[in-house]
């Protein structure tokens, strides 16, 4: 059974600040499974924790993508304070210490993250005949009205 498709055109409000956090890993040496597999398997418990405690942690939503060598996870957070507090939490610190112990500077596997603080009114979204996806899972998902018809209108304060 697939996700519910919302027929028509939808957007999200852009009245709140938010943080977009992109995190992932790259397998640089495919045969070094003992190096990259622990990195890959460290993420699911943290994702479960985030979804279980969303409101308290300030985590809004995420999407994941898996390529041949690279994973990408796009996360939406309420604030940098919430994101940084999670980074200092026990589950993340345990995974980080484990990474440093097992991988450290070994080039078999790479990790990365990028953080973007987006102020209200400085983002817009469009979803046509889509399930709730990306920002539409993190923010209120609303039908497009005449005053939301174009990207320019969605970015211009009303």
Number of helices: 6
| CATH architectural group of the largest domain | 2-Layer Sandwich
- Order of strands across the biggest sheet? 3-4-2-5
Report the end-to-end length measured between terminal Cα atoms.
Answer: 39 Å
Pfam family, one: Monooxy_af470-like
InterPro entries: Dimeric_a/b-barrel, Monooxy_af470
Organism: Oceanobacillus kapialis
Protein name: DUF4188 domain-containing protein
Q: What is shown here, in short?
A:
The chain has six helices and seven strands, in the order ββααββααββαβα. It folds into two domains: 45 residues, no CATH class; 83 residues, Alpha-Beta Plaits, CATH 3.30.70.
Please characterize this protein's 3D structure:
- The protein is of the alpha+beta class and 158 residues long.
- It has two domains: 6-13 and 119-155, no CATH class; 18-77 and 94-116, Alpha-Beta Plaits (2-Layer Sandwich).
- It is 34% helix and 32% strand.
- Helix 1 packs antiparallel against helix 4.
- It is elongated, with a radius of gyration of 18 Å.
- The chain starts with 5 loop residues before the first strand and ends with a helix.
- 16% of the residues are buried.
- The model has no long low-confidence stretch (mean pLDDT 92).
- This is DUF4188 domain-containing protein.
- InterPro entries: Dimeric_a/b-barrel, Monooxy_af470.
- It comes from Oceanobacillus kapialis.
């Amino acid at each position: 059974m697939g996700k519910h498709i919302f027929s028509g055109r939808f957007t999200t409000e852009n009245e709140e600040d938010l943080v977009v956090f992109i995190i992932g890993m790259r397998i640089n040496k495919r045969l070094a499974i003992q190096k990259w597999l622990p990195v890959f398997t460290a993420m699911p418990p943290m994702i479960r924790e985030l979804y279980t405690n969303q409101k308290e942690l300030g985590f809004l939503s995420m999407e994941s993508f898996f390529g041949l060598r690279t994973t990408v996870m796009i996360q939406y957070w309420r604030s940098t304070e919430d994101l940084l507090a999670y980074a200092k939490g026990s589950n993340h610190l345990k995974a980080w210490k484990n990474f440093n112990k097992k991988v450290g500077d070994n080039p078999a596997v790479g990790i990365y993250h990028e953080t973007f603080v987006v102020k209200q009114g400085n983002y817009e979204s469009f979803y046509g005949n889509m399930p709730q996806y990306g920002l539409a899972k993190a923010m209120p998902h609303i039908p497009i009205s005449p005053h939301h018809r174009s990207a320019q209108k969605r970015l211009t304060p009303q």
